[in-house]
């Protein structure tokens, strides 16, 4: 049987309509996906992350260049001031050496009048009919460490003013012993009391007292132990010593 197509192109139109319908469905699906808020958030996050990474890259590059320039300046300054720092350390070592020597001299100067004061006070307190056989030192004072020795190698201690202060007096008092004779036991009591009233003597104690024969006569031999006391500055009267030169 022979069929004649009276509408040529009808098949093509139907095929074209089928293809158009498929494109519309794809477009509608794509638009539906784009309208999804999660998809939009993901796209926005990617764009923001890319912008932030780019900005950080530029900022870090600029900071790196600035740090490199500062490093070059610091290296040049270090090389330039190396000689100055070496000279400063040398002068600081000399300063510490001089400070130690001055501390020793001041420590000796603080104690050089100890024995003149002791002998003067013993002579002033000695009553009549009493004479001395000996005055001897029984315990020496322990000198305190100098400020420079306390500082050591500590930089902060070197920069402090401890080295310029006068050394403190010895913490341990000087002890001495007085041995003498007396013909009156009451004179010995007065001698001890007068020594106790002295601003330079303290802790006077009677170590022993014996009756001995001297030139055929009985006398009392005594032994006193005492300590040197450093008086307050208000008690002392300082006067300059001047020598006339002819």
Keywords:
18% strand; alpha+beta; 6 helices; single chain; Alpha-Beta Plaits; 246 residues
Task: Walk me through what this model shows.
Among the domains are: 36-111; 126-140 and 172-233, Alpha-Beta Plaits (2-Layer Sandwich), CATH 3.30.70.2830. It has helices at residues 10-34, 37-110, 114-125, 147-151, 155-159, 185-197; strands at residues 130-139, 175-182, 201-214, 217-228. The model is unreliable at 16-21 and 155-167 (pLDDT under 50). Helix 3 (114-125) crosses helix 6. The chain is 54% helix and 18% strand. The protein is of the alpha+beta class. It has a four-stranded antiparallel sheet.
Entry summary:
Helices cover 54% and strands 18% of the residues. It is α+β, with helices and mostly antiparallel strands.
SSE topology string? HHHEHHEHEE
Structural class: alpha+beta
Could you give a short account of the major beta sheet? 4 strands, antiparallel
Rounded mean pLDDT score: 77
Query: What is the CATH topology classification name of the domain at 126-140 and 172-233?
Result: Alpha-Beta Plaits
Strand content: 15-25%
Helix content percent band: 40-55%
Count of runs of 4 or more consecutive helical residues: 6
Report the end-to-end length measured between terminal Cα atoms: 169 Å
Q: What would the principal axes of the Cα set say about the shape?
A: rod-shaped
Number of strands: 4
CATH architecture of the domain at 126-140 and 172-233: 2-Layer Sandwich
How are the strands of the largest sheet arranged? Answer: 1-2-4-3
């Amino acid at each position: 049987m022979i069929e004649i197509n009276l509408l040529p192109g009808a098949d093509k139109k139907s095929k074209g309509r089928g293809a158009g319908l498929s494109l519309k469905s794809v477009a509608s699906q794509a638009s539906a996906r784009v309208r999804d808020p999660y998809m939009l958030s993901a796209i926005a996050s990617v764009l923001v992350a890319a912008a932030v990474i780019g900005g950080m890259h530029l900022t870090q590059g600029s900071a790196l260049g600035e740090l490199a320039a500062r490093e070059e300046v610091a290296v040049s300054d270090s090389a330039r001031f190396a000689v100055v720092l070496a000279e400063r350390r040398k002068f600081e070592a000399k300063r510490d050496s001089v400070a130690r020597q001055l501390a020793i001299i001041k420590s000796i100067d603080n104690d050089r009048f100890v024995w003149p004061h002791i002998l003067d006070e013993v002579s002033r307190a000695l009553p009549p009919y009493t004479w001395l056989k000996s005055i001897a030192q029984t315990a020496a004072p322990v000198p305190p460490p100098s400020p420079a020795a306390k500082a050591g190698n500590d930089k902060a201690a070197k920069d402090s003013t401890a080295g310029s202060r006068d050394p403190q007096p010895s913490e341990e008092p000087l002890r001495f012993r007085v041995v003498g004779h007396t013909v009156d036991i009451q004179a010995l009591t007065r001698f001890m009391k007068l020594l106790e009233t002295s601003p330079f003597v303290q802790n006077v104690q009677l170590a022993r007292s014996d009756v001995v024969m001297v030139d055929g006569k009985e006398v009392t031999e005594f032994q006193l132990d005492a300590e040197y006391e450093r008086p307050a500055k208000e008690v002392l009267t300082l006067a300059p010593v001047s020598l006339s030169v002819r």
